[in-house]
Fold these 3 entries.
Entry 1:
Amino acid sequence: MTEFLADGVARARDASRVACAVALCLCAAAGQAQTATAPSSGGRAAAVAGNADFIVVVVNQELVTNAELQGRLVRIREEAERNKTALPPAADLRKQVLDALIDERVQITNARETGPKIDEAELDRAVMNVAVQNQMTMPQLRARLQQQGLAYGTFRNNVRDQLLTERVREREVNQRIRVGSDEVDALIEKRRVAAGMTPQVNMAQILVTVPEGATVEQVAERRARAEAALARVKAGESFEAVAREISEDGNKAQGGVIGLRPVDRLPDLFVEFVRNMKPGDVGSALLRSGAGFHAIKLVERNNGAAFTVQQTRARHILLRVSPQLTAGAAGQRLIEFKRQIQGGAKTFEQLARDNSEDGSAAQGGDLGWTAAGTFVPEFEVAMNALPLNGLSEPLVSRFGVHLIQVMERRQVALDLKQQREQARNILREQRFEEAYLDWLRDLRGRAYVEMREAPL
């Protein structure tokens, strides 16, 4: 497998949120700058021109200015107009937007105080990805920011804050979410029922019957006989052999094995008796039923039709960044490779063999079948967004710049352990929003927030 595989999957869960946050940085930063510097024409200028800039609210050590607030309102109104969506009354909209800006500042200041350090190389990659996603080179990005009146250093710090805030949010919110094993089991069972999947079990039994109306002495004698049979099994004798000798049920010739049956067609007391047993286990005590005394062995458990997960087979061309080959130049080379592939001049496999600086080059860039969490997050997000045979735009990761193609996708059955992990993740995602809002309320409650009046 190639060396750019993830060295851990802890960050893969928040990859899409981080990617979205970084991708939005350019638009958000540009909007702020345009609010302050846009020429006095059109709806935007009219919306902002009548409002002098002043401090609206102080949040810890951060300021929210009127220019920023009005710029956010303008962009929301423009978006609503494009999409023909209704907005709340002006006063309500202003309050909602101001609350959102306060929440952002609260999270940013908390992240700066408690978050991990974002190293410069990671920040470089994030900024480069913003440029690539907007189909720009780095010089073009710098020129665009300059046109919009935003210093490159300020933009870079905005990206850093986005990454840091998202990292801290995931850490803090996930610590608040608790998922119990019983909840995981309940969700798996609910999904099986909804999908028409019926768990099955196969048991073997040694049955010593108790006649209807038996006396106390007869019951005691029968119990003793069943306990003696169970003791022989515990001492090492074959369960099946003892069943053939002792059992009084119709399956004694098969060693007491009753065969694989759906759990909804078995008595509840038997299903409950074997619930926590593993295949091959023999119950430590006898089971009493209306028929008599049973020694039970769990032969097999089938949890119904297995759930499936998507696997992807992709290939890539990797160009490593160096003083001789900048990320921008590598991106331009990969754009040319993409044109050659789409035009039929060369194949992906040929270009990968000749140019890729990765261990997969000899296989034409083929990375084999992989499931979620295998690759570094930025690579995986881009790969998952591609259709079959689709080619990505150049993608920057900490290993260099990639051109990706998805070759195949397939569904693979999950075993019980994988099903439990999937169910746990589903429950965590379902509770994330509520936990996030609780965490944000706590942050707001501890934050210093001072509202300012507009100057006269």
Entry 2:
Amino acid sequence: MRQTLFYFPHEVAGLPLFGAGWMLIAWSLFALVLLGVLWRRHGWSGETKGYLPVLLAMGAAILFVVPRLEVDGLGLPIRGYGAFMLAGVIAGVATAVYRGKRQGIDPDQMMSLAFWMFVAGIVGARAFFIIQYWDSFQRGTWFQTVGQMLKFTEGGLVVYGSLAGALLAFVIFCRRQQLSALAVGDIIGPSMLLGLALGRIGCLMNGCCYGGVCEGGPVCISFPRYSSVQKDKLSPPYQQQLVLGQLHGIRIAPDATGGPVIAAVAPSGPAAAAGVSAGARITRLNGREAPTFGDVQAMLAQGPPTLTIRTVAGEEFSWATAGFPERSLPVQPTQIYSSINAFLLFLTLWLFFPFRWKDGQVIFLTLGLYAISRFVLEMIRTDEGGYLGTLLTISQWVSVISIVAIVVLGVVIHRQPRLNVRAAA
């Protein structure tokens, strides 16, 4: 876990790097050159004009938004999450442009498609996350709330939200450019998986998307107690283990009514030594009423070293934790599993592409295999709880819905004519 890689300085040669400074000058020159190239190739067409809103929006962000993200005395932080996400985008776009060119698609079209899919994907991924965790984004003022929502380079992007936004932009772009969505989808499908493989390493750097506690060993990893971004904020895995009581030697879970139940007790922990057993329903914690699972979590978040619990049977147990560890309990490295999974899917589908016999088969396999593997990976992730009153996480629900939609896509592909020649690699 390394949330911050380095910092860009506030000033270079006496001029601010961001705001009304070097970066705005560089972006303005880039925008002028890009518009000049597009005008020379396409004239002052709708395609050329379509870049103007985004170029202006990016310039406004450099001028007004980016300076507010700087850390006093340090400059603009470059987060590990954002850096690997950018690396994933570059790798995905490069492979898509390469294969698109071999299929006779203008690289400019592929670059334009990648640009709009990237923007829509970021918006969709962030919107999905904000909706899911809206309470954590609310601040004292509207401006502060918006500022918190814009900090996507520190984590907080959901792959399925990104996929929804990117697919919407993809369909609109193909219709406007009169391109076959199935044929182009076959080109970009593996590239999206390559981008995801690198992006998941960013999740590892950020400490999000983590797995459940494991017994240790070469495949388990632990995370530091505190975030490197906010020194007084616990890292995501550590925070979860604290509010679930795992750092006290127990694990709290909600029962069917939402009440707190001791779901598990660590065999060699202080709770086991105090005589605590799994299955007991908690009614009081440290002398306070604890009617709901959320109440217990709120109390545990305060980090009391001593716990006294009373169960519904009237039993009372008390034990003390000598000191909280500097690192979390070992957890499954689901970020690494997800990265390896995405890379293997990319490699498989990249090699399969020349042997497809109908347009759409590669994107069909891309979406289908990812939905299945994501459903399975969610079984060992613990950063999301059950949704709609079930044990399935929101991502598993989306996987199920996606599989239904993918079956419909398979029917459409089945009705497509067979390719006359083998596709170029």
Entry 3:
Amino acid sequence: MTQAPIAYHPGLETPADDEADTIAELNRTFDTILERVADDEGHAYRAVHAKSHALIEARLTVLDDLPPELAQGIFARPGAHDAILRVSTNPGDVLDDSVSVPRGVSLKVLDVQGDRLEGSETDRSQDFIMVDGPVFTAKDAAAFLKNLKLLAKTTDRAQWAKKLLSTALRGVDKVLTATTGPSPTIRTMGGAPNSHPLALTYYSQTPYRYGNHVAKVQLVPVLPRMTELADHTVHTRGRPDAIREDMDDTLQSGPARWELRVQLCRDPERQPIEDSTVAWDEDAAPFQTVAVIEAAPQPGWTPARARAVDDGMRFSPWNGTQDHRPLGSINRARRQTYRHSSDFRARVNGCPVHDPASARLPA
């Protein structure tokens, strides 16, 4: 039998003494990326996950008859919510798709109820931020700062050099995957497989409060027309926006469907809250489905959708309810840094960022 899920309590988190200083330095380093990209592009983008590949209107349905340990927070009551998904890749600069880096999905669930997290009191949505790998590349905010400083130095470098490096690192990743296993660092640097994003499984990587418990979140494609794309390589030669084009073809030609699953923390020693580089053992703590997300055929990406979502909305783990409070060092750092990036975009682009009233996106 699996162990019972642990009870959430604030003492599960152990902030470092110098965490406030680390977060301040993260914001200064993000400014380097934000300002360079805005100068190059004449437009402000997110400090991470700048380039979107699909902007999808969807419907999330909480399953009926969930057991008590899963019927928590916004999943306590069965029913449907409008939702928006933003599919992206992780650099803060807008790169040619031949530079292959990890994919991400930001999920915004609309019209949720519950006491709000600090800074999101006027909103009515719940965000989950996910990437196509089970662990984060850094243990905590201090380790992430070291990585970010390296990434900031490569921002604004010639894309031809990044393309060459990405080609070489994809070869390294193939060898590692076949032997010791994939390296999140190599993939972040440009060695990720150029896979179709609709075939991938996405992970929150970091834990959230889950009502009375603690959980990580997973998004899994379930339609054959999506999972069959697992062996599909996005061909980028002469196609700087190849991912957008391939996703648009797939999304326009039929529906999409995912399952949203949660992995309850059952042993905080083996499933740590503060170390985001540790994958929680799925045998001891299996992922369990709590909702399905469905999208009707639609355009995958258009300039009008980019203005509405990329410019007009923010996605943050700290946009949501107290029942899904983000936990751990990486998430505590995200609270200020995500807001910092959002405020920069709004100021430079002259476009207010707001919580959407509906999931209806322009064509």
